[in-house]
Amino acid sequence: MDMVIHRRIESDIERRILSGEWRPGHRLPTESELMAEYGCARMTASKAMSGLAARGLVTRRRRAGTIVAHPPLHSAALVAIPDIQTEVEGRGHAYEHRLLARRVRPAEDVEAWLAGAGRVIQLETVHLADGAPFAHERRVISLDAAPEAEAADFAAQPAGSWLLAHTPWTEAEHRISAVGADVVMARHLLLPPGAACLRLERRTWRDGQGVTWAFQTFPGDAYDLVARFQPTKA
């Protein structure tokens, strides 16, 4: 029973942190307050807080208590393609998206790696979690690599989820950077212009052929990207 309660405490606190309800620096309830709220033993409350600290969500300081941790910097490359819909739903939120723009056009010079002299479909999307902006996405898809994309209904299914189902990748490249929200981005994410954001630039290939080039931008105070990895053995 205590194991079930400590996981419930962890889940409740994690939800509040990831939703932005509890911001970095927010002081969490004490173990005594958690004991009273959940009707559990001190060891159970301490185990829940230790689990959150081990995952980097909170910082525990003797005499100062426990606070929400500031998002850490991660230099390790991501080893998987995160699907925003799956991630939002995995956090316990209702997912939806809004397709803002869709256009089929010739590939530009900078997109030669993606489509050569072929055509691309250009998309702009806002992803939502419980009705609030979660990420803004700009994406182009090579119609040489994924010709079915031209007829796909991206208003009904987000492009990232569609691609994972229809054109699985064999190679990917990520680039993570801090950016300030421009006027358009700020409007879509409900942020003040210039607000700090995290941007994930992603390129994917299938058997050497470029498939998609996406720029996903997240509010900087509500999201971080974490990779778990092991050293390569000789």
From TrEMBL:
It comes from the Bacteria. SMART domains: HTH_GNTR, UTRA. Transmembrane segments: none annotated. The keyword Transcription applies. Residues 3-71 form the HTH gntR-type domain. The keyword Transcription applies. Keywords: DNA-binding, Transcription, Transcription regulation. One of its GO terms (molecular function) is DNA-binding transcription factor activity. PANTHER family: MANNOSYL-D-GLYCERATE TRANSPORT/METABOLISM SYSTEM REPRESSOR MNGR-RELATED, TRANSCRIPTIONAL REGULATOR PHNF-RELATED. This is GntR family histidine utilization transcriptional repressor. It comes from Brevundimonas lenta. The lineage of its organism: Bacteria, Pseudomonadati, Pseudomonadota, Alphaproteobacteria, Caulobacterales.
